[in-house]
Amino acid sequence: METYREYDPKHLLWPELDDAALTRLRSIPFWDQALDTERKAGVMVSSYAATVSDPVLKEAIALQGKDEGDEGDEGVEAGGQRR
């Protein structure tokens, strides 16, 4: 818990990509599926956290669930740009 840092894509060091590279990245056929998988993982982990009785473990699992969901919800692509 002491080392936890909230997921915030604005603070990630994204490479600078030109329009052609962004278009190519966005055209990857599994991109939407990857984001959907992150969203589903967030729901599953958060749901599991609700069943844990140990308060410290529950909080740690809940934070992981939040991060997983945030990664899918952000829809952030390389270059720090939203879809």
Summarize the structure.
The chain has helices at residues 19-26, 31-49, 55-74; strands spanning 76-77, 81-82.
Features:
disordered C terminus; mainly alpha; two-stranded antiparallel ribbon; 83 residues; 3 helices; 2 strands; elongated
Describe the structure.
The chain has 83 residues and is mainly α. It contains three helices and two strands. The protein has helices at 19-26, 31-49, 55-74; strands at residues 76-77, 81-82. β1 (76-77) and β2 (81-82) form a beta hairpin. α2 runs antiparallel to α3 (55-74). The radius of gyration is 15 Å and the shape is elongated.
Strand content: under 5%
The number of distinct β-strands equals 2
Secondary-structure element pattern, one letter each: HHHEE
Assign a percent range to the helix content: 55-70%
Gap between N and C termini, in Å?
A: 31 Å
- Largest sheet strand order: 1-2
